[in-house]
């Protein structure tokens, strides 16, 4: 009987050790995922800014090709 209790204690200690390790692993994974989410948000914002800048340059390029406002005739012509 005492031997069975000792075995149960060892098993319980092993399970507690495994649980602590798993909790540490889950926390580490959570930290990594949080950092990755922040990086994704930053990259997404940078991509939006690049797209906006590209769109602005495309509009400027089209305006340059079509001629500036000085080349346009007033509406009454």
What does this structure look like?
The protein has one helix spanning 2-66. The protein contains one helix and no strands. The N and C termini lie far apart (109 Å). The longest helix is centred in the middle third of the chain and has 65 residues, at 2-66. The chain has a domain at 26-62. 84% of the residues lie in helices and 0% in strands. It is mostly helical and 77 residues long.
Give a topology summary:
Elements: H1 2-66
Record keyword descriptors for this entry:
single chain, mainly alpha, rod-shaped, 77 residues
> Which structural class should the secondary elements be placed in?
mainly alpha
User: Quick check: average pLDDT?
Assistant: 91
Query: So how many helices?
Result: 1
Q: List how many beta strands DSSP finds.
A: 0
Order of secondary-structure elements: H
How would you briefly describe this protein structure?
This protein is mostly helical and 77 residues long. The chain is built from 1 helix and no strands.
């Amino acid at each position: 009987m005492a031997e069975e209790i000792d075995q149960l204690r060892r098993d319980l200690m092993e399970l507690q050790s495994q649980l602590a390790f798993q909790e540490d692993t889950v926390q580490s994974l959570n930290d990594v995922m949080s950092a990755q989410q922040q990086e994704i948000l930053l990259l997404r914002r940078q991509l939006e800014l690049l797209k906006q800048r590209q769109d602005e340059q495309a509009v400027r390029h089209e305006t340059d090709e079509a001629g500036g406002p000085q080349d346009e005739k007033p509406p009454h012509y």
